[in-house]
Amino acid sequence: IKQSGLGREGSSYGLDEYLEVKAFHVGGL
């Protein structure tokens, strides 16, 4: 599995996780 920051290749998986982490950080703080 190759991950590149925003997950351009695996947008289906990478972006989903990226958005979840972002929402968690924003909601957490």
Task: Compile the SSE list and pairings.
Elements (H helix, E strand, L loop, with lengths): L10 H18 L1
What does this structure look like?
InterPro entries: Ald_DH_N. This is Succinate-semialdehyde dehydrogenase. One of its GO terms (molecular function) is oxidoreductase activity. The chain has 29 residues and is mainly alpha-helical. It has one domain. It is built from 1 helix and no strands. It is rod-shaped, with a radius of gyration of 10 Å.
Number of domains: 1
How many individual β-strands? 0
Order of helices and strands: H
Stretches with pLDDT under 50, minimum 5 residues: none
Radius of gyration from CA coordinates: 10 Å
The whole-number mean of residue pLDDT values reads 63
State the secondary-structure class: mainly alpha
How far apart the termini lie comes to: 31 Å
Largest sheet: none
Task: State the helicity in percent bands.
Answer: 55-70%
The share of residues in extended strands comes to: under 5%
Tally the helices. 1
Bulk shape: rod-shaped
Task: Write a concise keyword list for the protein shown above.
single chain; about 30 residues; mainly alpha; about 60% helix
Please give a quick description of this structure.
This protein has 29 residues and is mainly alpha-helical. The protein is built from 1 helix and no strands. The N and C termini lie far apart (31 Å).
